[in-house]
Design brief:
This protein is of the alpha+beta class. The chain folds into 3 domains: 222 residues, Rossmann fold (3-Layer(aba) Sandwich); 69 residues, no CATH class; 124 residues, Phenylalanyl-trna Synthetase, Chain B, domain 3 (Phenylalanyl-tRNA Synthetase, Chain B, domain 3, 3-Layer(bba) Sandwich), CATH 3.50.40.10. It has 15 helices and 21 strands. Strands 3-2-1-4-6-5 form a 6-stranded mixed beta sheet, sandwiched between helices. Helix 6 crosses helix 9 and helix 6 packs across helix 10. The longest helix has 30 residues.
Length: 453
């Protein structure tokens, strides 16, 4: 087993941190992710010395050639010195990235690693997964999130526990870890890719953080304290938001009278509905619609799974969207006020002035020649194969290409509305483009058709 060096403070410091944070005690079992670097080697060593039953797991992503093979061999060697037989998995990262479009190599490794860890934890009946993130990693995460723009959830960085993931080393620094291993005569391997400052985290680690520490010697301790304070504040904040959630939402209805008593009502609404996929901007627009002196029709806001509806009477509701609405809603411009449509659609007849293209934007509003007043029209969701003939183009374009140009995510794309003639000719891709059909003739009366979602 161990060739023990002199007892040093790091073991008692980690033990105390585990107790303070309410992490699993030494009578529990851990799956320990071991890369071979100083952090994970120290984690495995410390947990064993503190009395935990550990299973070591190593991921070989085959991304660094001989260096990756060296890491795996060192993990196997050190674990066997400890009387453990490590479990090793080999991943094909390139294939995973091809099968999951838009996933970076870094994200692919993370997804593969944690999915395998959880699968292995369950299979072995282990209590938790221990990973070796330490204080300096957390400072880097804090700075990364802060420079991207974030809220309390991002500023609290990594937490000591997230589900079955446990981080016993968050209270100690990289320097302490390496000093501990040197004193104990324990070797580790170094990932050469950590020196590549093309990665933002590495640039922070190798350039920004050391410069900050030189400029303000207590800066890192101050940031670590800030992270801990934010984490506590976020915990209280989350409790208060949950308390308000229970008071605000009754069935599908949100209590707007209570919601609007808060100065930060948009933030509160966002926190209440964010788990359903809504953005802060959508919530801000919903609150603006609720606070408007006059309610000009309904507003609809979609996430991948839910609909947030601001009624024309100043009500607010949220409901799950079980599936795409495949209905067709027929109407005419002249009779639009009586039409029962799922969106707030209006048509204003203009016959006292000349038409100007500046009166409409082709997205939230279009102009239609008044001769189409009694033409049967249809409001429906777009379908594969739908085409539109935009102004200024000789031919037609697939609507799918129009939506791709707008970079709409799949769940947004499938809920886009169109207005068509009875024969299926698309007159308006709502929110995107207007068709050249029924364009306004010089001197003619026209309708301005507008919609708010």
């Amino acid at each position: 087993m161990f060739q023990r060096g002199p007892k040093i403070d790091l073991e008692s410091q980690v033990s105390r941190y585990i107790q303070e944070q309410g992490l699993p005690g030494k009578d529990s079992s851990a799956l320990v992710g071991v890369s071979g670097g100083a952090d994970s080697i120290a984690l495995l060593t410390l947990l064993l010395r503190l009395g935990y039953r550990c299973v070591a797991a190593h991921c070989d992503f085959h991304l660094r050639g001989a260096e990756a093979e060296r890491d795996r061999e060192w993990v196997e060697h050190y674990c066997r010195e400890l009387g453990l037989e490590p479990i090793v998995v080999h991943f094909d990262v390139a294939t995973y990235c091809r099968e999951h479009k838009g996933v970076s190599v870094e994200m692919a490794c993370r997804e593969l690693r944690y999915a395998w860890f959880e699968q292995l934890r369950r299979k072995r009946g282990l209590d938790f997964i221990a990973v070796a993130h330490h204080r300096d990693d957390n400072i880097e995460t804090f700075l990364l999130n802060a420079t991207r723009g974030t809220g309390l959830a991002g500023l609290k960085a990594m937490t000591p526990r997230a589900g079955h993931i446990v981080r016993p080393l968050l209270g100690v620094s990289r320097k302490q870890i390496e000093e501990y291993l040197r004193e104990q005569g324990i070797a580790w391997v170094t990932d050469s890719s950590n020196a590549d400052c093309e990665y933002r985290r590495n640039a922070l680690r190798n350039i920004a953080v050391p410069a900050l520490a030189r400029t303000a010697p207590q800066a890192l301790e101050g940031i670590a304290t800030t992270i801990e304070n934010v984490r506590r504040n976020h915990s209280l904040y989350s409790e208060l938001v949950e308390h308000e959630r229970r008071r605000l939402i009754v069935g599908k209805t949100i209590d707007t009278e209570r919601l609007l008593t808060f100065d930060s009502s948009a933030t509160l609404l966002y926190e209440v509905v964010r788990d359903h996929g809504f953005s802060y901007e959508q919530c801000r627009e919903a609150i603006m619609a609720l606070r408007a002196e006059t309610h000009d029709g309904s507003r609809y806001f979609y996430s991948a799974s839910h609909l947030l509806h601001v009624g024309s009477d100043g009500t607010l509701s949220i409901e799950e969207i079980s599936e795409r609405d495949e209905g067709e809603y027929q109407f005419t411009l002249a009779g639009i006020a009586e039409a029962r449509l799922p969106l707030s659609l209006s048509a204003e007849l203009v016959n006292d002035r000349q038409f100007s293209p500046t009166l409409v934007d082709g997205k939230s509003s279009i102009a239609v020649d008044a001769q189409a007043a009694d033409t049967p029209l249809v409001l429906r969701h777009w379908r594969e194969g739908d085409r539109i003939q935009p102004f200024g183009m000789a031919g037609a374009r697939l609507l799918s290409d129009v939506y791709n140009d707008l970079h709409l995510p799949a769940h947004e794309k499938r809920r886009q509305w169109v207005v068509t003639r009875a024969d299926g000719t698309v007159l308006w891709a709502i929110g995107a483009r207007a068709s050249s059909h029924y364009s306004v003739k010089r001197g003619a009366a026209f309708y301005i058709v507008s919609i708010k979602r």
